[in-house]
User: Fold Biopolymer transport protein ExbD from Sulfitobacter pontiacus.
Amino acid sequence: MRRFAKSKPQREPTIALINIVFLMLVFFMVAGTLAQPLDPDLKLVETRALEGQAPPDALVIYPDGRLTYQGAAQVDAASYVASLSDEDREIIRLVPDRALPAETLVALTRDLRAAGAQKVMLVTQRALQ
Assistant:
């Protein structure tokens, strides 16, 4: 009588499959979180050529440091914040001109916060060509 050698059942390569799926998962997590580079022609702040007007409740600052609110000139940040109600001091919207130096913008936001503004939000326009 002939004996046939029992063949071992073929094992499925589950560990290799799990490793491949895990590597694909990591790849898609990393690829999904990378941000697209900004287009070199993109200009993030554009206020001189806005279509329309600044929001009615926004403080506008010009390149020379001049402040206006609803078309009326403002003396400084402290007097502007003092003229607001407690509710309006929670969020102050600021529309900076594109040519405004960053130092001036930072100093103004610091002055607004020191005068009692809870939060200062910059209003900008993304100009995609």
